[in-house]
Structure formats: structure tokens, C-alpha cells
Amino acid sequence: MKKTILLLLLSCFGFEAFSQSTITTAQRLKWWQDSKMGLFIHWGPVSLIGKEISWSREGYGKAKYDSLYRRFNPTRFNAKEWVALAKASGMKYIVLTAKHHDGFCLFDTKTTDYNIMNTPFGRDVCKELAQAAHEANMPICWYFSVADWKDPDCRNPATNAVFADRVEEQVRELLTNYGKIGLLWIDFEGGPSPIEPKRVYDLARKLQPGIIINNRLEPFTPDESHAYIGKYADYATPEGFVAGYGKVPWETCTNMGHQWAWRFNDHPRSLKESLHTLLRCVGGNGNLLFNIGPDSTGVFPTEFADRAREMGAWIAKNEAAIYNTKGGVYTPATDYVSSFRDNKVYVHMLNAAKKELVLPAMPAKITSATLIDGTKVPFTQTDQSVSLAFPANQIDSVATIAILTIDKNAVSIAPIVPFSTTGSIAYAKKATASSSVGQFYHDPAAAVDDNPKTSWKIGRRKDVDFSRFYGTNLHFLSKEVMDMYEPSGWLEIDLGKPQLVGKVKLGEKSYQNSEVRKFEVLYHDGKKWVSLATGEKMGAWEKTIAPIKAQKFRLAILERVGYFEITEFQLFPPDPAKSGQ
């Protein structure tokens, strides 16, 4: 009986009800995935000049930038007000930049004098914010850059080992001195981590067994930081964009404004855009970490604080469709997303100009359809589609939400993709690849989803001892890093049955002089692979071919420079007008 009471008491504190040896990843992640949105706070002495944190250091002048802390005195900083804003905005956790790439620490550290205690302000910001968050039952989390662009020991062949010890001690301080920490958000800034990742993960989980840790310690490229969870991490972190639908845990980090740190004359994104960013994360089965930068006095700009509270007011009226849900059963489309809990499917119509949605068929019986307030939504369900007729006088300018009650638990239904927007017969078909850079967003399925914002990328690491590169000064576009990955590979589509194909379309996204230099499209004739077409420059490539009937088609990447993305691999039937059919 006493044991039962103890477990019930511990369950009030989420994952702490489980011992370190029995807690599963799903149990550790549950509170965070149910929360859906957190407040990201980028802040430091850089707010005095309104430029980007860390990244402006070289252009502004390193010496001048590094001296800003001597006049950093945010006298209007009030930790309780920060936490209150987060709660009023519908944000369920807070992530503060305890240390960014510039090396400045917002906490009382014994490892360096370059910290908040040596500013005119002289108060431990992390301590005050943690205390306020704990009092409000708001999970407090730390952003932490393992790199330090100011520290001459960082990635110095002679002294990086000393620096790595210093990093480990900073992690120890952050996870020892401020009570329970919900999440550790490590960042990647273009080069291999200066400390062996396992050291940080092992220490963090020893000090805080229930802590959640993102994926940016192991990556060697930005794409890995967006989509590759890796050996030790809990979730992936796409940045600046919403990545579609993912079965693995993920969280988009992006700005309400247009810079991570506060800047002069910045304005927040509209209420509609801000909320759609959240809803697309919810519908994509992910989280949103939404950033607002306080000014140099320690206050969130009025216009941003007002927008955040507007978001909170809208969310409060629709929270049943947001918190404690999973993305699906319908995967995101242009005009809608959906979420579910138990036998309730929440369809969020994002286009206020529409009054009706026609969705793909659902393998469950819909027993009722209503708005959030209980107003009935007329619907028609067939084995081909589900049609919803929203009341014309109750269309919400942001999103109108229909609650579909079904005759089974929605978790048993596989994700249902939208109707194709292109007519490609490769749409949503089984796609495989020689390798991929991540578990979603850059996986093979991203090339057959009619969504040019997602893309497949070759990503297999060669049989290389990656651990020996941690602490070295290698840029992700360097030849040394590029040589660690397979230079060629293939993407394959299985149509499920032989179909007639008369046209092929390919889409490529490249950057920083990276591109595909040679490729080939092939089909399988039942015995071997046969070439259909070759090319030396992809871009937006398409080719009409003599009709071929086959079940499997391949795109082979034969030569490339740098990093590239295949946004779409599309197959179309012959044009009757041109083929005489």
C-alpha cells in the first residue's frame, strides 16, 4: 500500500515516477511531446547592439563584441514576468541560451570570468529563471553550445582536451545547481563537437536521469542536425522550417521575429502565420520551439509579447485539439493538418476562404462531427473520401477545427496522406534508398510526397572512426568531412505493380556551389536495371520518354559536388494527346 501511494505521489512529477533503470525513451519524452510548444530565449550582451548572437561577432569586431558584457545591465529583467508570459502564450516549457557560441555564460560558472556575474548586473540569470519556473511548475531547460568561439583552447590541437574538461564542468554546473532540468538543447555550429558526445550524454543522464537531450552533439553537417537523431539523442531538430510529417520525435526551432537575438525595428510574424507554424508542427507529429529575444533591459518587446499572448488566447479556445495529441491520422496538406487523441480526430482547416474539405477515405466509421463548441458539422463518408461542410458563419480566420469521433482508437490507423497535387503515379509509393541523412525530412519518402520543402539526401557515413574527428577544426563543407560520406547512391520507387510511365520529373535543391553533376534514371525489367535517361545537370529536370511499363524505377546519383537535395522524383503516365492513345 505504501509503495502504491509513493508511486502515485511520484507520478505527479512526470517521468520521475520511474527509476533510471526502468524509464523508457517514450516515458521520458511524453511530457515534452504532450506540451507541443516551448519558448526559446536567445539573450546576452549582444542585445545592446541589436545584432545576431555570436554570428555577428566577426563582422562587428571580435574585441568590441567580447567587451559588450562590461556594460550589460538588464535592470528590468524579471524572471517571474518571463515565466508568466510563457504561460499566457500557451508555451509549456522554456529553453534559455545559458551559453551560446560566443562563450558568454548567463550563469554563475567557475570555469570562466566571461559570465553574467562579472557584468554590472551581477546576478545569476539562470538561477532566477529556474527558481521562477519551478515555482510556476514550468519545465526549465538550457540551450548550451559546446563550442566557444572566444576561447583559444576550443579545437586547438594542443589544448582542446583542456577545453573539453571545461565544457564538461559547465554541463555539470548547469545540471547540478538549478534543480530539475527538463531538457538540454545542445547546438551545432558548423564543426565537429569539441568534446566527445558520449561524455556529455553520460554525464547529463547521470545527473538528471529523466532529462531529454536533442541531437546536435553528434552531427558533422547541418542536415544531420535537422534530421539525424543518432546514437544517443532523443529527437531531431529542424531549424527555420516545418518539416512535414515525422514518425520519429522532432521539434522545429524558429523565430517569431526575424533574428534569434533582439534587433532594432523587428516585428513579429502575423498571428495567423505564428499559429499556422504551431499547427503544422502539431499536425506533423512534432513540437515547436518558438523564439523571442528580450532587449538589453531584460524585457520582451511589447509587440512580441502582445503577439505571444494573442497566440495563447487562441490556443486556450482550441487546446483540446493541440495539447496531449499526436499528429495524424491525416498527414499535413496545403489546406489542413490533423491531430488525434484516443477516438477523436481533430481536423484543422487552415484556409479561411474554404467552407468544405474533401479528405481521403478513413478506415474507421465516423460517428459524429462537430466544431470545438459542439456545433454539428455535416459530413459524408464513403470508401473513397470524407467530406466536411463547415458552417459558413463559423469559419475562424486562423483555423477552423472539426472534431471527428470515430469507432476505434485513432492510434491504430496508419498515417493517411493527402490527395496528390501533381498526379504523379509515384506519389506516396514505397521509396527506398542506398542511404539517407536522417530518419525523416531527408528520408526516401520525402522525394515522393509532392512537397518540395522536404527532400531526400544521401547520408550514409563511410566506415570511418568519426570519434577521432571530435575536437578538430573541420568545417562541414571541408573535403575532410565530405570524404566521410558516400559520394554516390540511388533512390528507388516501387509502384506496387507494373504501370505505364511516359514522363519523369526530378527536382534538385542545391546551395553553396553544391550540385548533382551526373545522374541516371533506370527501370527494372524483371531481371536487370535498364537505363532510361542520363543527365549532367539536374535542377528542375524532366524528360518525356517512350512509354515503359515497369514496377520499379531508380534515380542513380553518379557524381556530385558538396551537398544536394532531391526534392521530388515523379513519374507520370504517357500523354494520350502525344502518344495517340
Give a quick precis of the structure.
This protein is an alpha/beta fold and 581 residues long. It has helices spanning 2-11, 25-35, 57-60, 62-66, 79-88, 125-135, 160-174, 197-207, 222-227, 271-283, 302-318, 479-482, 576-579, and strands spanning 37-41, 94-99, 140-145, 183-187, 212-213, 251-255, 287-291, 326-327, 336-341, 344-349, 356-360, 366-371, 379-381, 385-389, 400-406, 430-433, 489-510, 515-524, 529-535, 540-561, 564-572.
Word description of this protein:
The chain has 581 residues and is of the alpha/beta class. It has 3 domains: 28-301, Glycosidases (TIM Barrel, Alpha-Beta Barrel), CATH 3.20.20.80; 326-412, Golgi alpha-mannosidase II (Immunoglobulin-like, Sandwich); 430-579, Jelly Rolls (Sandwich). 21% of the residues lie in helices and 25% in strands. It has helices at 2-11, 25-35, 57-60, 62-66, 79-88, 125-135, 160-174, 197-207, 222-227, 271-283, 302-318, 479-482, 576-579, and strands spanning 37-41, 94-99, 140-145, 183-187, 212-213, 251-255, 287-291, 326-327, 336-341, 344-349, 356-360, 366-371, 379-381, 385-389, 400-406, 430-433, 489-510, 515-524, 529-535, 540-561, 564-572. It has a 7-stranded parallel beta sheet. Strands 16, 17, 18, 19, 20 and 21 form a 6-stranded antiparallel beta sheet that branches. Strand 2, helix 6 (125-135) and strand 3 (140-145) form a beta-alpha-beta unit. Helix 5 (79-88) packs across helix 6 and helix 5 crosses helix 11 (302-318). The protein is globular, with a radius of gyration of 25 Å. The N and C termini lie far apart (78 Å).
